[in-house]
Design a protein that fits this description.
Elements lengths: L2 H4 L4 H43 L14 H93 L5 H92 L3 H12 L20 H7 L1 H9 L40 H5 L1 H13 L3 H9 L20 H38 L10 H27 L6 H5 L48 E5 L18 E6 L6 E5 L5 E5 L3 E5 L2
Antiparallel strand pairs: 1-2, 1-5, 2-3, 3-4
Helix pairs in contact: 2-3, 2-4, 3-4, 11-12
Length: about 600
């Protein structure tokens, strides 16, 4: 069924329905535009939110950047930023595929509908014009027929009148005959107009208008079909980006699973461990032996050091979290300059066990005086109003031993990188000079003299700094093996490991009690923190491990990798029993954890 047959007399209804359909398209386009604005605002807010909490730091070496929870949070923000990008893509695709396309199609439909309505109006005007002509001829025929009837009646009356002359009778008859002839012509014209009107009316109602109505029906059906496609695109546009959005959400989930609380705890230890030893037992001050107060205080200054460092009252029990009490002048040790402590894991001193008092006096004179005040100031700054900041020195002596070693190692690595860069530049300038000498047309060798001289000076300067920092690192208790120093490569965590090539002491060695004044109250209660393995390796050849700091291995033996090769050809490994040492990288096949 079609409109032309079933709705031949519903022109106004069809006109109203098609207009309502076009208005629906306009309404849907407006709806989608507002939806795209919501998506764009949502994406903008998400981007601003990610930017707000993802502040760019001046350096990537911030302490918290090493925590897995912090890195996962940054990954979450990055995924959220990508998610916002997908929301923007949804808005853009909706605007392009729905709003712009439907708006253009709507204009075409409006123009087409206007054309069809103009054709219908024109056909209707033509039919109305024909009807007017028909009505005019009909009225004329009616008027002329009445005139003819009156003329005939007058002629008959005149003919019957005995007083009328023959001339009057003839004139009346001629007039009646003329009127009858005119009436007959009007009748014929009326008949012709009637026939013409009926023909046009038949054409109008059976051909012209049904054709126009059918065209409007087709237009409306195309509009409905296009609108339905717009509805589908509204869903498909978002479906197309759902896989990417799903990946963003999976990335957020992965960021959560990548958080490793144990590794974060290890990072805190690595960043904050000072390297000081725990305090030893206080010595008994036997006044009955005639030792005066002053000499006792001086001789036992070392055992009192931890109490003063922690701000404890001598009358109270020793505890990490007890309330701080003010130090009286009499309780302060007889020294005020910062100490230079021995290595955190240095070799034990057998003298201390035999003569602790004399050893303490010796240590006070040698090492304690340069450090205790600084460490006490460091601890006091957390609790007292007078925050005294230790002077920052080039050798990082103001830091605790462990942190000092790490900073020195970092500085060495920076110098090594800069030195390697200068060496490479020097080699390049040398090659360029050789090329210029062999081919003068390519350049003047003398033009490179200033650059070569400057590079040489830089290399000498960097080598001097390298030797200076190596010396400071050795003083701070860093790894002293020549093999490691010549390559200027250091352990990442900077820890003084009992199995590293420093060969400081073995598992059976007893820690030096004299180091008790350098106490660092960490959350862990072990002398050494074992670095988590980063992979495994399998030995391809036998290695005797005869040199200091190395470890023997047999072909086919599987070891845990603790530290990667830093470019010197040696890798740090660990056995299941805890033995650690360095092995040649070329002797093993390494597989790192992902």
């Amino acid at each position: 069924m079609d409109w032309g047959t079933e709705l031949w007399d519903q022109y106004d209804t069809i006109e109203k329905h098609t207009q309502s359909g076009l208005e629906l398209v306009e309404k849907y386009v407006k709806f989608v535009k507002e939806r795209t604005e919501i998506e764009q605002n949502y994406a903008k807010q998400l981007r601003n939110l990610s930017k707000k909490y993802n502040l760019k730091r001046s350096s990537k070496d911030e302490p918290e950047c090493r925590f897995s929870s912090y890195q996962s949070f940054l990954d979450l923000l990055n995924e959220m930023n990508d998610y916002a990008g997908q929301r923007e893509l949804i808005a853009e695709n909706m605007m392009m595929s729905i709003c712009i396309d439907l708006t253009k199609y709507l204009q075409e439909l409006k123009q087409e509908r206007k054309t069809y309505l103009m054709e219908a109006k024109k056909a209707q005007q033509s039919l109305e014009s024909t009807y007017k002509q028909l009505d005019s001829s009909k009225k004329r025929f009616e008027r002329e027929w009445r005139e003819a009837e009156r003329a005939a009646q007058y002629a008959e009356k005149t003919d019957q009148d005995i007083n009328a002359t023959k001339a009057d009778v003839e004139k009346a008859k001629q007039q009646a005959h003329m009127r009858a002839h005119v009436a007959e012509e009007c009748k014929n014209d009326y008949a012709a107009q009637l026939q013409k009107y009926n023909k046009e009316q038949n054409q109008f109602y059976f051909n012209d208008m049904p054709l126009i109505f059918n065209k409007l029906q087709d237009l409306d059906e195309r509009r409905v079909r296009k609108l339905a496609q717009g509805y589908i695109l509204f869903s498909d546009t978002e479906k197309h980006v759902m896989p990417i959005i799903g990946k963003c959400l999976e990335g957020i989930t992965k960021a959560g699973t990548n958080v490793n609380e144990r590794n974060d705890s290890m990072v805190v230890i690595e960043q904050s461990k000072s390297g000081f030893e725990r305090p030893g037992d206080l010595e008994f001050e036997d006044y009955s032996q005639g030792i005066n107060r002053a000499s006792s205080d001086s001789s036992l200054g070392t055992p009192k050091g931890p109490m003063d460092l922690l701000g404890k009252n001598r009358s109270k029990n020793f505890w990490l979290f007890s309330k701080r009490s003010k130090l009286s002048p009499s309780t302060l040790p007889p020294f005020s300059t910062p100490p230079a402590p021995s290595p955190a894991n240095g070799p034990p001193s057998p003298k201390f066990g035999r003569d602790p008092l004399s050893y303490c006096l010796k240590e006070i004179n040698k090492t304690v005086k340069p450090r205790i005040s600084s460490f006490r100031t460091l601890r006091r700054s957390k609790f007292t109003p007078e925050r005294i900041t230790p002077a920052v020195t080039e050798d990082f002596a103001h830091l605790p031993p462990e942190q000092r070693r790490k900073r020195l190692q970092q500085k060495l690595e920076e110098i090594c990188k800069e030195l390697q860069k200068e060496v490479d530049q020097s080699e390049a300038l040398g090659k360029m000079k050789d090329v210029y000498e062999k081919n003068p047309q390519m350049g003047d060798p003398a033009s490179l003299a200033s650059q070569i001289s400057q590079t040489t000076q830089n290399i000498e300067r960097l080598r001097g700094e390298l030797n200076k920092y190596e010396t400071w690192l050795a003083e701070a208790g860093g790894r002293g093996d020549t093999l490691r120093y010549k390559t200027h490569t250091f352990n990442n965590n900077g820890a003084h490991d009992v199995h590293s090539p420093d060969g400081a002491h073995s598992d059976e060695s007893t820690p030096d009690p004299s180091q008790a004044i350098y106490a660092e109250f960490d959350d862990d209660f072990e002398d050494e923190e074992l670095t988590a393995p980063i992979g495994k390796c399998t030995a391809m050849y036998n290695f005797p491990g005869a040199s200091e700091g190395t470890i023997a291995m047999q072909e086919g033996e599987v070891l845990a990798v603790v530290e990667e090769d830093k470019g010197d050809g040696w890798t740090r490994v660990r056995r299941n029993n805890g033995d650690e040492g360095y092995i040649p990288t070329s002797y093993v096949t390494i597989s790192l954890n992902e």
